[in-house]
Amino acid sequence: MSVGGFEVVSVIGLGYIGLPTAAVLANRGLEVIGVDISERAVNAINEGRAHFFEPELEALVHNAVNNKKLRAVTRPEFAQAFVIAVPTPISEAKSPDLSYVKAAGASIAPVLKSGNLVILESTSPVGTIEMLAAQLSELRPDLTFPQDAGEEADILMAYCPERIIPGRMVTELVENDRIVGGMSARSVDVASKLYKTFVRGDVVATNGRTAEMVKLTENAFRDVNIAFANELSKVCDKFGVDVWEVIELANHHPRVNILQPGPGVGGHCIAVDPWFIIDAAEGQAPLMHAARNVNDSKPGYVVEKVRSLAKPGDTIACLGLAYKANTDDLRESPAVTVVERLVETNEHKVVVVEPNVETLPPHIAGLNLTRASLEEALESAQVILLLVDHDEFKELRAEQLVSKTYYDSRGVWRHLPA
Ligand code: SAJ
Global pTM? Predict the structure, then answer.
């Protein structure tokens, strides 16, 4: 069955972005071949399961696999379009690591056919779609690409950044507007048709470099705004005023909309992507650089605050390890950084509570700490440190904290019921 002119689409990389994309495409009736190097992910998907938690995703995967619209493999096969959604981490030196994009390019090159569309969705430094096109052209000299053949090219190339937020991925995948940056007008046209098979938002056309910059801009904008809130929290501490009240009141101004301070910025996106700009901007991004430093300094600030509140020998209960509320995602989590540093100082017993994660990864489980339920932690600890605003922690009553020393890094315990 052809949907929007497509029958078989391949999604390379079945992680946080690739799997929801593959599942949504398959539920629109397209035949989707998902490709991942992880056998564990491939096996789980072929059994109709998602290999990570995201609301609504499991049902979509189950349905798609049951209807034989989605299957997962470890090596690319022929398809009409290839959507690449692989990780683009940063190195220790804060420069982008494009090895997964290059590996994805090398893996699809042998199965590319004239008329194919290649889309890159991974967050990437400006120029990456051109780099991928050059790599494919070198590997397949028998095919032509937009950088050489323009509108006549055999292969169409587009950069179409994902913008879905964990926790609302399935909804946002369909509802959010999409930017389609093509290396030729035909690339934009055909890639837009693919997105229009499932996107209810606008599908907006531009060129590849602009689309790459738009994606980086979105996350750098949010990073700078969160940094403002985090800096403000330190300033307000100095002045002895409640930052949460200051923000609430300032936001009554019609043109002020300050975000929320917290223990730092985590996840695989906002804490990473601004570096793709800073690294390449040759000194032209001092504000974004400062914002990164402010956000990265926040876990250390929280550690110092709680250490100053705790007495020697106290037990500190750390509530939450995830990078943000109501997720099980521990990637780049500032809460984990805080816990690691508290354990390192070796001054207090550390108890952690994380209701969303069944088995802690070895680098956390191996630390000198105890895991507990919320009730056990409240019983055993003298000091309570709130690191993540999970719903369970917001539902505490004031009487449960009355005999405790506590530090609330997210400002959720200001109005606790009695
Ligand atoms: N945070 C705060 N204060 C706030 C908002 C967030 O401290 O007011 C913290 C969170 O606790 C978390 C971090 O920032 O540690 C990032 O969380 P987030 O909810 O802002 O964003 P992500 O990383 O989950 O997803 C972002 C989104 N980008 C934007 O909102 C511009 C999402 O749309 C992108 O698709 C995603 O990055 C991505 O993959 O690039």
Answer: 0.95
